[in-house]
Amino acid sequence: MNEEIENAEIRLITEEGDNIGVVIVEVAAGLADEAGLDLVEVSGGQTPVCKIMDYGRAKFQAQKKAAEARKKQKTVDIKEIKLRPNIDQHDYDVKMRNVAKFLKAGDKVKVTIRFRGREMAHQELGMGLMNRVKEDFTESIKVELQPKMEGRQMTMVIAPA
User: Fold this and answer.
1) Three-state DSSP class for residue 101
2) Helix or strand or coil: residue 84?
3) Using only C-alpha atoms, what is the Rg of the chain?
4) pLDDT tens digits in sequence order for the chain, 161 residues long
5) What is the dihedral of CA 142, 144, 148, 150, to 10 degrees?
6) Whether the Cβ atoms of residue 146 and residue 156 lie closer than 8 Å to each other
7) What is the 3-state secondary structure of 84-117?
8) 132-158 b/e with 16+ CB inside 10 Å = b?
9) Which of 55, 69, 124, 136 lies in the 20 to 30 Å Cα band around 152?
């Protein structure tokens, strides 16, 4: 900015956006002083591109744009629903209402089935339960991680379609 520009020659752009061409830094600084603005290096290189502008205002606009982008940004959470292989129908319905609520809010859902003791011998019950969850939400989800066993639990990750 202003006196900190090190190259002797620069490519100058006016505050209206007109390209003047390659000029000496002192001439460009004089034009910026006449306009009551700053000479700001926009991009470096062999002959850096400099623009005559109000630096404080440009910096403020950039901060506002960054704050607006942060405000509009949606963070996707991963919610977890834990099931058991021999879950009762009513309990299953309650859990699926919660899954539907999470998916509607735009969150991903990790469905976990924990096996204890002799339940490990009947992993097909867990796989059937996972398939049942997939079938209940076929039109509104996409499966990001297919059901797989990790130690004593089977997990699957689903996301809204």
Assistant:
1) helix
2) coil
3) 30
4) 777 777 788 888 888 888 888 888 888 888 888 888 888 888 877 888 888 888 888 889 999 999 998 888 877 789 999 999 999 999 999 999 999 999 998 899 999 999 999 999 989 999 999 999 999 988 888 999 999 999 999 999 999 98
5) -140
6) yes
7) CCCCCHHHHHHHHHHHHHHHHCCCEEEEEEECCH
8) ebbeebeeebebeeebeeeeeebbbbb
9) 136
